[in-house]
């Protein structure tokens, strides 16, 4: 289902995906407010605030990917037309040729013609020590029945 009430915000979201797929960093950065926040667990710094941090994060992402791909599955926009939830079928290719296909959800918030927050949600658990801790307790519960 795709529903939207504000063509301009919908267009802003579409341009964000298109500029990333084109790996056009400058065009992409023009879509963000100066104090925007991007939160994405795929990045070395999962929380990036301000254009300098966001530019650095996306520059690194673009350098490690052969291609980005997003197919919008569902689009839901707030009544005020400044927030959207976007479900995608994500299909990326790493520089080495490995294909990555997974569902993903993005929350976009905006003010005027700029993105103020972009947050990605993935369908898998946390990484790092918290992921290890969660996997340990899952394993422990499966062994002890608790």
Output the keywords:
single chain, alpha+beta, 7-stranded mixed β-sheet, 4 helices, disordered N terminus
Describe the 3D structure.
- This protein has 146 residues and is an alpha+beta fold.
- Helices cover 35% and strands 38% of the residues.
- The chain is built from 4 helices and 7 strands; from the N terminus they run H-H-E-E-H-E-E-E-E-E-H.
- The protein has helices spanning 7-21, 25-29, 51-64, 128-144, and strands spanning 32-39, 47-49, 65-67, 70-77, 83-94, 99-111, 114-121.
- Strands 1, 2, 3, 4, 5, 6 and 7 form a 7-stranded mixed β-sheet that branches.
- Strand 1 (32-39) and strand 2 form a beta hairpin.
- It is globular, with a radius of gyration of 17 Å.
- The relative contact order is 0.18.
The gist of it:
With 146 residues, the protein is α+β, with helices and mostly antiparallel strands. It has helices at 7-21, 25-29, 51-64, 128-144, and strands at 32-39, 47-49, 65-67, 70-77, 83-94, 99-111, 114-121.
Number of H- or I-type helical stretches: 4
Strand content range: 35-45%
Name the helicity range. Answer: 25-40%
Mean pLDDT: 86
What separation lies between the terminal Cα atoms?
40 Å
What class, by secondary structure content? alpha+beta
Question: Which secondary structure elements does this structure contain, and how are they paired or packed?
Answer:
Elements: H1 7-21, H2 25-29, E1 32-39, E2 47-49, H3 51-64, E3 65-67, E4 70-77, E5 83-94, E6 99-111, E7 114-121, H4 128-144
Parallel strand pairs: 1-7
Antiparallel strand pairs: 1-2, 3-5, 4-5, 5-6, 6-7
């Amino acid at each position: 289902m795709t529903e939207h009430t504000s063509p301009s915000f919908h267009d802003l979201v579409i341009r964000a995906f298109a500029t990333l797929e084109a790996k056009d960093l400058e065009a992409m950065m023009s879509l963000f407010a100066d104090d925007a926040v991007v939160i994405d667990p795929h990045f070395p710094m999962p929380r990036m605030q301000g254009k300098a941090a966001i530019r650095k994060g996306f520059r690194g992402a673009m350098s490690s990917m052969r291609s980005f791909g997003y197919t919008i599955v569902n689009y839901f926009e707030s009544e005020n037309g400044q927030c959207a939830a976007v479900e995608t079928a994500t299909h990326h290719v790493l520089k080495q040729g490995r294909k990555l296909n997974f569902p993903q959800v993005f929350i976009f918030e905006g003010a005027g013609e700029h993105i103020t927050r972009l947050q990605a949600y993935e369908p898998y658990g946390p990484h790092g020590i918290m992921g290890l801790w969660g996997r340990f307790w899952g394993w422990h519960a499966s062994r002890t029945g608790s």
